[in-house]
Design goal:
Elements (H helix, E strand, L loop, with lengths): L2 E5 L3 H8 L6 E3 L13 H17 L5 E12 L2 E3 L5 H11 L3 E12 L4 E13 L4 H11 L18 E6 L3 H4 L3 H10 L9
Parallel strand pairs: 1-2, 1-3
Antiparallel strand pairs: 3-4, 3-5, 5-6, 6-7
Length: 195
């Protein structure tokens, strides 16, 4: 089997990929993640997923490289990682009572065959109406400063939601495993094989 490499520094994506019980390496891609002028959210995450995988692909002759990127979109505005508790509080106040779409770009590059497969997986979240105190308590407890949308759905962040809509809840955390297993299968990697 070719070497499998996750082009990500995210511990959440590694946690998700671990579920597939495949041996893999991980490396942090160093790319500019700034949106291009007038770039739509879906185009942005697809491009960044590809660029992250390409940044790592140069280091391997025969590997399958997985790249992923995610943004949250609310009222047409892209929400990135807040970085500070103040910005996390502001984001969650904005999201309170609203429907938010999370777009996750996923790219798989085969360095041996020079092929790129990429998709964008949407996932919708209906936020509960949150009080200032609930937001403050959540941000203080979970510190979701490096998460798009200012929450961790795999943790206490689940309490922020009224409803989840999508094909794969893993995509909300940052790696759509259902699509990934299909993409890996086209590369000859069957996660359900006995290997």
């Amino acid at each position: 089997m070719q070497t499998l490499v996750l082009a990500s520094s995210s511990p959440y994506r590694r946690m998700l990929l671990d579920k597939l019980e495949l041996p893999y390496q991980h490396a942090s891609p160093d790319i500019d993640e700034s949106p291009k002028p007038a770039e739509q959210p879906a185009a942005l995450v697809k491009r960044l997923a590809i660029e992250k995988a390409q940044a790592i692909a140069t280091q391997f002759d025969s590997a399958i490289i997985i790249g992923s990127d995610q943004v949250a979109v609310c009222d047409g505005v892209i929400l990135g990682k807040p970085g500070t508790a103040t910005k996390a509080h502001e984001q969650l106040k904005l999201l309170s009572g609203k429907r938010v779409t999370f777009l996750t770009g996923l790219a798989v590059i085969n360095t041996q065959h020079q092929t790129i497969d990429a998709i964008v997986e949407p996932f919708n979240v209906q936020f509960r109406t949150l009080s200032e105190q609930q937001i403050e308590n959540y941000v203080a407890k979970e510190q979701p400063l490096n998460c798009a949308g200012s929450f961790k759905s795999e943790g206490l962040g689940i309490a922020l939601f009224e409803k989840l809509e999508g094909d794969d809840p893993n995509s909300l955390i940052g790696l759509p495993l259902i699509q990934l297993t299909k993409m890996l299968l086209t590369q000859g990697i069957d996660v359900l094989s006995s290997q």
